[in-house]
User: Which sequence fits this backbone?
């Protein structure tokens, strides 16, 4: 252990090497990085030339890359995109809670809890088996049509409920994997100190489980952010529907690209954050094993 | 009245009968060492006492009350019994001090200040006070196991169970853990210790029980068991230990 401490790497060097590792460039040195830059440059140049010189390019450019169309549509689409982000943020909170409840129900041991376990399994199976668009249409058109007292008639509300129901099924499975990855000896240690089952779960099992599943949880949230576009089937004006309106009036598709860029602007940082968290966990595990 | 009494305890895992009728009484301040080959039932016996395993037969009494009766609050029973495991089982996401104060705060309802005072005092007693802010994976195996002992002691149990607590340790770290147990014995703690450390058992035990295939085959004072065993199987077991250079 003492020798570990003596050759602790310089943090700046370590940070750089992690960046290179992410790009699979570690251990390549300055020459390797130069070659990578040059080859990327050549590659991009060749692609640009090949695409813009091809016979169909003027057509493609007119249909998809008309800067006038894109910049015209962008402000309205960005305003509509706020709705997608709002749906995402609100649903996320409810999904995290509902999924945790389902996962905990499914992890309850003993014959007494069989009905709850069975219910949780059935739920996860249904939520993952039914197409999201179908559930959103079912709730978004169906629930307001009932015209029951006290039942909200907002389509956005019901689309949100649909997303929460579907994604909770996925996220519950992620939680469950985390709970099962905590060694049973941890629960035994907690219970042996007199903690109740619930206390052991709250203090010992879940904190360890959730830490381990943060990267896959973020992965599911990337999917959720994309799927907020499904509210468009209810006629709600979100980024996708707004893009469609512009596209229908110009007979070009640049507006779709504008909407796509907005989604990507949110999901790419989430994806990089997920990668970073996974890499950090791996480093921690390696550091931990040095002391085992 | 015995501190702990086992009456005809049976336990099976599937078709495998691990305990086949254990009778044992442990008096206050007594240190009972369980010896025997791996698989003889030592660990299972300790886990049964702590109600981590459900009995298939027999009864267990703690301080005269039956703890295996229906309707007994298992959490209340476990509060009174400390157990230390072979693999330490510290909570890796908590600092040493949090490991030690978790149960006193959540189970006994101590305030944070009270629990930390109690925890720091115990850590200091076993030479761990400067480690209270560390996470378990920054500690050596011997230190982790001492923290696990402190974690159990922080509940002020009336009985301590030790399940081969030095078996996972590097040889040079065994002594520091055994000296902690020795200190507890000198302080009068009632203990049941499953161990492969024969010289330690000979030294510390008021009584040694030899387990063989789920039964206590022979019990007596360490001097008698180690130098003059009555049962041929005990003799055989000790002979193998001596050949392995462990006694």
Assistant:
């Amino acid at each position: 252990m003492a020798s570990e401490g003596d050759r602790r790497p310089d943090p700046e060097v370590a940070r750089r090497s992690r960046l290179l590792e992410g790009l699979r460039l570690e251990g390549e040195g300055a020459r390797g990085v130069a070659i990578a830059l040059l080859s990327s440059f050549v590659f991009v140049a060749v692609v640009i030339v090949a695409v813009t010189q091809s016979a169909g390019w003027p057509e493609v450019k007119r249909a998809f890359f008309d800067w006038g169309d894109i910049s015209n549509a962008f402000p309205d689409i960005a305003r509509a995109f706020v709705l997608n982000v709002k749906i995402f943020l609100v649903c996320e909170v409810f999904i995290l809670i509902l999924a945790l409840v389902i996962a905990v129900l499914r992890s309850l041991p003993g014959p007494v809890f069989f009905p709850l376990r069975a219910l949780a399994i059935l739920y996860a199976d249904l939520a993952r088996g039914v197409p999201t668009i179908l559930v959103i249409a079912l709730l978004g058109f169906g629930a307001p049509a009932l015209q029951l007292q006290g039942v909200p008639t907002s389509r956005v509300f019901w689309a949100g409920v649909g997303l929460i129901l579907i994604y909770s099924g996925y996220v519950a499975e992620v939680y469950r994997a985390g709970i099962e990855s905590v060694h049973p000896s941890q629960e035994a240690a907690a219970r042996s100190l007199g903690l109740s089952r619930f206390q052991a779960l709250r203090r010992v099992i879940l904190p360890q489980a959730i830490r381990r599943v943060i990267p896959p949880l973020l992965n599911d949230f990337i999917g959720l952010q994309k799927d907020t576009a499904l509210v468009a089937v209810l006629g709600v004006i979100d980024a996708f529907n707004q893009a469609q309106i512009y596209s229908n009036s110009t007979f070009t598709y640049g507006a779709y690209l504008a909407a796509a860029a907005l989604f990507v602007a949110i999901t790419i940082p989430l994806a990089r954050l997920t990668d970073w968290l996974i890499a950090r966990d791996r480093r921690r595990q390696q550091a931990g094993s040095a002391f085992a | 009245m015995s501190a702990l009494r086992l009456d005809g305890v049976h336990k099976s895992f599937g078709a495998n009968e691990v305990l086949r009728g254990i009778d044992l009484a442990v008096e206050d301040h007594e240190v009972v060492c369980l010896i025997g080959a791996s698989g003889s039932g030592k660990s299972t016996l300790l886990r049964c006492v702590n109600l981590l395993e459900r009995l298939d037969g027999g009864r267990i009494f703690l301080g005269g009350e039956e703890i295996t009766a229906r309707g007994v609050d298992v959490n209340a029973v476990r509060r009174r019994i400390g157990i230390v495991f072979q693999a330490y089982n510290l909570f890796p996401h908590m600092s040493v001090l949090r490991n030690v104060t978790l149960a006193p705060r959540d189970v006994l309802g101590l305030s944070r200040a009270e629990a930390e005072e109690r925890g720091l005092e115990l850590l200091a007693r076993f030479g761990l006070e400067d480690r209270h802010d560390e996470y378990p994976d920054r500690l050596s195996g011997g230190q982790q196991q001492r923290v696990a002992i402190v974690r159990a002691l922080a509940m002020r149990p009336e009985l301590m169970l030790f399940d081969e607590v030095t078996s996972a340790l590097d040889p040079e770290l065994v002594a520091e853990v055994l000296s902690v147990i020795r200190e507890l014995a000198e302080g009068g703690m009632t203990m049941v210790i499953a161990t492969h450390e024969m010289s330690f058992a000979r030294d510390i035990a008021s009584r040694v029980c030899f387990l063989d295939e789920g039964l206590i085959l022979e019990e007596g004072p360490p001097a008698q068991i180690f130098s003059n065993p009555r049962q041929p199987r005990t003799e055989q077991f000790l002979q193998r230990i001596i050949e392995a250079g462990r006694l």
The radius of gyration of chain A is 25 Å. DSSP finds twelve helices and no strands in chain A. Residues 67-106 of chain A form the longest helix (40 residues). Chain A touches chain B at residues 1, 185-186, 188-196, 199, 203-204, 207-208, 211, 288, 291-292 (CB under 8 Å).
